[in-house]
Amino acid sequence: MAVTLGTDKLKNFINGEWVDVENSTAVMNPATGEEIVQVPLSGAADVNDAVEKAKKAQKEWALVPAPQRAEILLEVGNIMKERKERLSRLLTMENGKVLEEARGEVQEGIDMAFYMSGEGRRLFGHTTPAELKDKFAMSQRAPVGVVGIITPWNFPIAIATWKSFPAIVAGNAVIWKPATETPMMAYELAKIFEEAGLPKGVLNVVFGSGSQVGDAMVHHDDIRVISFTGSNDTGRNIAAECGRQLKKVSLEMGGKNAVIVMDDADLDLAVEGIIWSAFGTSGQRCTACSRVIVHEDVKEQLEGKILEKMKDLAIGDGLDESNTVGPIINEAGMEKIKSYIEIGKNEGAKLLAGGNALTDGEHGKGNYFAPTLFTDATANMRIAQEEIFGPVISLIPVKSFEEAIEVNNGVIYGLSSSIFTKDVNRVFKAQRDLDTGIVYVNAGTTGAEIHLPFGGTKGTGNGHRDSGVQALDVFTEWKAVYVDYSGKLQRAQIDVE
Fold it and tell me: What are the structural domains of the chain?
């Protein structure tokens, strides 16, 4: 099934209109090196225009009953479901991930639409007994206003739905800056919202760079929430500026995720989990496994099984369904991975497989890197501490369960962790002691479900969560309401006897 975008150049989507921008840059297929489309390079003026329109639209949208707002999301989900294959193929073209993974990502967006449409009939507040006679007390959610979402290239539709759907059902208007590497999913989702009947100005897409569009959004006084997924350095800068403005900010950033394999683990199952978590999406996930913390008694056996399974990985264009690993997003990503290979060697880790770019034949047209395995790494090596964002894993031997937990927690990140063991006591201790926002037992480090909160501790984020009902907290303010029907002034605690 061949698909085309239907245009050579994208346009911004502002107030329900497709707006042309003079400057643009090429979007490249990382699997083939071919240009797909031109994406606009917008500026602060475009952001200002979108915010002005969004402010007006939001005032009306907030007055629409939440169950009616939810009906739009339900229709969005239905349209996405009908177009799942088209969306998946376009996603693979711009992002590179294999088609099976692209379908899974689109399904995640469909699931999020249906889940958040249900929240339109909940958006629960709380009632509570009042301290005084003839007085009623409750709390309720209120929309924040105009929110800005800044999304990455590695999950160009899933992460956008985690952020935009709860924002919209809660009564906000959205300004969305997608990654310039993967703008087609934003274009397609905007068209779907338009077709589903979303009022003009409630969703606005402004294409462009982080230094221009993203910076303008962060500094705009009328954008009261910034929800960002991306690098730690950028996240810190956003947090600092939002703090200065007393603006709400939600950050989801890096990970240095580990799979712990204990001496009693099902090694074949562990290997399957490791291979999928480390090499799926070519390791370009914030939840990717990049460390394997293995008990020394089974280290050599696990090593051998991983090496054997790595031979089965087929690397190539994700549109070819015989391939299981796709390309790296761009040349900058390739160079970063190459630099960490040299770092690992210089630190004394032993390179067992991979460690090189693939340039022969069809691979020479795109950005391909061989799945890579280091062993005999130590916990303090840079390859065991820093996020590489590529198909590279390091085996770290440990002597005990307690040491495994300590090594897992000994990084600045805290997104996802995993343990393979048959010991129920270890399972419950791991759930308690692993310092990550996501914990897997007898599974890899990746594969979030949309009805649970997604995010992490420490350097991974700032305490907020994408996905799940918890995502509503980012895009709403809690309002306490007191109704006094006593007919006299009651002064709370002062009048309590």
Answer: 12-253 (3.40.605.10), 257-441 (3.40.309.10)
